[in-house]
Amino acid sequence: MQRQGSSGGGNTALRIRVIAGGLLVAHLAFVAWLTLRPLDVPWVLPPNLRPFAGIEADLALGWQEGVRRITEGLALLAPLGVLLPAVHGRIAVSPLASLVRTVAAGVLISMGIELLQTGVPGQVVDVDSVLLNTTGVALAHSAVVPAARHWLRRRTERAHRTTTALKEEAPQGRTPTIPRVGIAP
Question: What is the pTM for the complete model shown?
Answer without folding.
Answer: 0.80
